[in-house]
């Protein structure tokens, strides 16, 4: 039994909740995390838990009018640690968890549910202004600066009359200096669009045939390196984002996993080549990306094009019979992870031996 | 074997799924079969139980497949998460203790941050760039980048506008103000990363945090072969907080780039901060070797071998240097051509902080993030 050289995924603490939980996030620089969701009576809830003596202690419960779908600490400072959330009614709120009665920022950002949110420029991750991006069922993707009230600083929406697609996932990336920044958005029809915020242009788009459930850059704060996109039909794609070919775009490798929807992908903050995917059957898969010997080559016309690497499965476990709705690595402790699932459970996981990979 | 042993097995010639001849569901056949795809199918049929339930044969087939293709998807099984009982008592104690001590550590740290809250808050606000698209205070902050910010365009409102995106026009436009191309240059980002990080108003803790993160970025870049980028991030890390680990890692990246002099300088810095650091001695020996200072190289290598007589790299390098010395009709290099495998390591966060150079150097147990084999042109 002890000859485990592979990383092991340990279910360290689990706790049943009395509401549907959609998202969970570690509070930076702490042993606390927040869960966000929906009470059966139709209201929204944010709970703050802390690990204490190998158990979870509920520190705070905040009830709000609308169910809360998603949240991020990505645009806040380490000192403030304000939580930005998106709710079923399309509201973007920023909360001070110490004084959550009224939001410190509030805007009716979208006409319909905010499915997804991401932040950059806070926590010392990503240079430049703190910004939040939201993606909604109303088809739009909007970028917000908490210093500007009421209006987004960028808005990406389809032309009037054109079919609007449900945006399921957004991710910031490429924030390696003060000017550069991209937003990547995934839609229910399999579209992936990469928006360059510096030039305000659509830099790249592709379609992976199935709804895009989750997108994440391996790191937000370096020149874009890799992007993982997971899909409804049990596949995920890893794009090498360093080399863009004028017609072929970015090279990618795809892999089947979970035998069902891959709901989430999250890269290990301490090692960008490792990532966890979470599946519709309650399973977690830990992957490693390996680079090819040459990351780019010249095509027949001498134009540089990327070469994709390969992914290998390091470990997989099944935690639940229900889909895992969210997943978050602790930014402070390597291998510590929290996940929520639709059986109304939240679990703290430990993944061992990650430093040896 | 069991009652589930359907007559179909004998009645029909092939299995229902995949149409595999039934004879293939057999120890002898599986033992000889080397076709991974076919074995996967056989395994799938065996597991489904549609041709009957044969636990031993299934296991045998799994083993065979594992031998041929350890990475095969068919071998992935649903497993429950590990628990305390999956480990030996000592292992579990270590894992559990590690988390417990981290929890108490981070709580302390968190309390300290709260204590500092009032003081640090204004400083962070002041450094921020202006709100995107707000023309107002573009020049308020005095940072030099504010001038190079792109002219604020109207925000595109819809996809149609992006469809109208005229590549050529856009190219020429971009060419005017930046030497950037529509096709992304692989290395162009390097010149646009700030080499220094502004640390005004940061607490010591925050500096450590920042320096560690930049160093980790450097390590990741190093491990993916982007040595220039690695040097950049180590430089950023050093600009926040000079550490032995970051200097040492930058030296290694400089060696990769064959910047012998820069590597030498970094080794010197390490040895200044921590005399007798083995990695730095070893790396400095390499720079000496390539600059044909063979005597100096030998001295460094001797120091390493005194502490670590079994250090493979040191042994190998000193053999080479000695041979070079013998051959040296002054500075005539008759080194082995081709590529040489070299053991190297990049230190991770556990390794920093100038603990004395540990004994176990190359066996990967000394808190190494990575011990990798890479090619190194001699």
TrEMBL record, chain A:
SMART domains: WD40. Coiled coil: none annotated. WD repeats lie at residues 132-145. PROSITE patterns: WD_REPEATS_2 (PS50082). One of its GO terms (biological process) is apoptotic process. It is found in: Dynein axonemal particle. GO terms for cellular component: dynein axonemal particle. Signal peptide: none annotated. InterPro entries: WD40/YVTN_repeat-like_dom_sf, WD40_repeat_dom_sf, WD40_rpt. It comes from the Eukaryota. Keywords: Apoptosis, Cytoplasm, Repeat, WD repeat. Component of the PAQosome complex which is responsible for the biogenesis of several protein complexes and which consists of R2TP complex members RUVBL1, RUVBL2, RPAP3 and PIH1D1, URI complex members PFDN2, PFDN6, PDRG1, UXT and URI1 as well as ASDURF, POLR2E and DNAAF10/WDR92. Interacts with PIH1D1; the interaction associates DNAAF10 with the R2TP complex. Interacts with several dynein axonemal assembly factors. Key assembly factor specifically required for the stability of axonemal dynein heavy chains in cytoplasm. This is Dynein axonemal assembly factor 10.
UniProtKB/TrEMBL annotation, chain B:
PROSITE patterns: TPR. It is found in: Cytoplasm. TPR repeats lie at residues 244-277, 278-311. SMART domains: TPR (SM00028). Gene3D superfamilies: Tetratricopeptide repeat domain. Pfam families: TPR_19, TPR_8. Keywords: Cytoplasm, Repeat, TPR repeat. This is Sperm associated antigen 1. It comes from Suricata suricatta. The lineage of its organism: Eukaryota, Metazoa, Chordata, Craniata, Vertebrata.
